[in-house]
Amino acid sequence: MTASSSHGIELRAGALRFAVRPDLGGSIAGLWSGDTPVLRSTEPAALTLPRSSASYPLVPYSNRIGNRRFRWAGQDYTTPDNFGNYPHSVHGVAWLRAWEVVSATTTNAVLRYRHAPDDHWPFAFEVVQHFDLTPQALTARFVFTNTHGAAAPAGVGWHPYFPKRERSHLDIAIAGRWDSDATHLPVRREAQARIADDVARLDYDNCFDGWTGVARITDEKFSLELTSTLPYLVVYTPQDKDYFCVEPVSHVSNAIQMADPAAHGLRTLQPGESFESSMTLAVSAS
């Protein structure tokens, strides 16, 4: 049964339970199979910050805008600090804003965020986020629409956090890895065909291209298959944390500052133009 309250919306299907907090950036509070967390999960009433969530939306850009500035259509823009005394703008604006609940059923929820131009992002847009839960999987889908009066840049992504367990393992086919400078901005691409190792042995905070759209994540509890229509993947495996992240995204980090943003995934949408993307996390027991 659907539970909707000031602390969010819960969906259930078979053994899976899903919770989302529209008021906290449209972020996912948790995904559980029975009592066991599939994602890093917090009961929705206890969640206080999007950055502590199971996943949050990366809209209208993924990852970083270097030194909080960019140039678009001949005009220079700056953006304020949104990540706690950090030199770059991070993950867009939608994760920091309340979302409207459009509809909710026992297995489906639809949220919407409408953005008016402000200091954090100077272009108007609307993004609708659909969640569908079955006994086997969670699917999330974005429909992003440029509501600005001129062509505008657009990017999206999801930021799922996974519990780091004793046998957490990644198997992902890719083509290249973007290495970063000391300030975490990508500066060079290196060929890499695969990530296939235990998470405890990995030390990534990188964007990868050439992703086939499938990431297999296994541990002693679950065998997960993460699939997405988005062409890039950010993998973050901090060695001193009890979680790791596998993030489907539409573009390379800081693509807006690159010589050819479109070649690195950043879209230009005309007024009224939309694009859709999806992510599915299929869950089975190990």
Automatic annotation (TrEMBL):
InterPro entries: Aldose_1/G6P_1-epimerase, Gal_mutarotase_sf_dom, GH-type_carb-bd. GO terms for biological process: carbohydrate metabolic process. GO terms for molecular function: carbohydrate binding; isomerase activity. It comes from the Bacteria. Gene3D superfamilies: 2.70.98.10. Pfam families: Aldose_epim. This is Aldose epimerase. It comes from Piscinibacter gummiphilus.
